[in-house]
Amino acid sequence: MYSSETLKNLQYTLLERTELINELAEIHHARTKKLLNGDKSLFDVSSVFNNLKYSVLQTIDNARDICISELAKTMGFTLPYLSLLISQLEQNNLVERYQKDNNRRTNFVRLSESGNEFMDKMKNSGDVAFHELLRASLSEKELLNLTNIYDYILAAFEKKPLPAEKKGEYDFFALCRQLKEQINAESRLLNTRLILPVFMGKTANKTKQNIADNEVLAIVDENSPIKMQDVAEKIDAPPYQIGRIVERLVKGGLVLRSKLPSDRKVVILEITESGKNFIGKNNATMQILIGKLVEHLNEAELDKLYRHMTAVFKTLRKVISVNSLPAEFAEFSA
């Protein structure tokens, strides 16, 4: 068993990973929207909660024919939570529930006609957008090395044999698609093994919290005191949605809400002692789950995992840096 310090460092490493992926996702999201001629996306890619809805769509799309209970098991969700996501996707007219003639007791789910059109658009435009981001910032050798590193990381997390290292020349577009699939696979694994058990477990349910609530709570904790409007901007959510979440957090005693004396229209949020304790319990639970995630690795293997994740961070920062610059200056950033 690893020391608490080691597990804490691992937690910080995974948090850094999430922040970098979210930054990359925001840039990719903007590029994809541009390719879609400015169509408004249904999902805020920087939000963990909404990323899960897109993961549900991807899993349904890949399965083509799956019952809801099997979908919940595949994704590691509880049935009530998955039903909530499916209901929201039904409201967007992206999925539909149905029953088979030979099995009227089991509920199945599939993409609707609009859902199929949406996924085709997102996949095609998303692949092109991701190719543009990587082509502007990485050489083929760097991209190939990155996919090999991700092979190791996924194998380490999933307790699987390491695939043979890729060498030689590869199609750049194919490597981009593979990397996107690897990042998505890693995100699904971490959501299932770490995020959901912490934020949808017994502790979370007792305080009526969900993933979106915890996302807001974490922002308040890191920036307390903070304007409610600033919280909404950080997760790109409409004010009414943040208002509902804040109302739950205030009722739970986790956040203190007040008005700015100089401007009564401005709402200020502060973390309470109960809120800090709640986050502390979540962190402790997270570290236990991280320990289980890597318990099969010895010290040398864990050190190699650290080094590989550090290499990934360095490369992702380069991609983000290059693609965050105005187009006319990007060529001078390498």
What are its keywords?
single chain; 334 residues; mainly alpha; Arc Repressor Mutant, subunit A; 2 domains; three-stranded antiparallel beta sheet; 69% helix; globular; disordered C terminus
How does this structure look, described?
The protein is globular and about 65 Å long. It has 2 domains: about 230 residues, Orthogonal Bundle (Arc Repressor Mutant, subunit A); about 80 residues, Orthogonal Bundle (Arc Repressor Mutant, subunit A). The C terminus is likely disordered. The longest helix is centred in the first third of the chain and has 32 residues. The chain has about 325 residues and is mainly α. The strands form 2 sheets. A 3-stranded antiparallel β-sheet has the order 1-3-2. Strands 4-6-5 form a 3-stranded antiparallel β-sheet. The protein contains 14 helices and 6 strands. A hairpin with a 2-residue loop joins strand 2 and strand 3. Helix 6 packs parallel to helix 7.
Q: What is the CATH class of the largest domain?
A: Mainly Alpha
Could you tell me the CATH topology label of the largest domain.
Arc Repressor Mutant, subunit A
% residues in beta strands: 5-15%
Flag low-confidence runs: 44-49, 202-209, 327-334
In whole angstroms, how far apart are the ends?
A: 42 Å
CATH superfamily heading of the largest domain: Winged helix-like DNA-binding domain superfamily/Winged helix DNA-binding domain
How would you classify the helix and strand content by structural class? mainly alpha
How many helices? The count is: 14
Q: Write down how many β-strands occur, each being a DSSP E stretch of 2 or more residues.
A: 6
C-alpha geometry:
globular
Average pLDDT score: 82
Instruction: Return the domain count.
Output: 2
- Helicity level: 55-70%
What order do the strands of the largest sheet run in, or round the barrel if closed?
Answer: 1-3-2
The radius of gyration is 21 Å
Helix and strand sequence: HHEHHEEHHHHHEHHEEHHH
Major beta-sheet overview: 3 strands, antiparallel
Q: Any guess at the CATH architecture of the largest domain?
A: Orthogonal Bundle
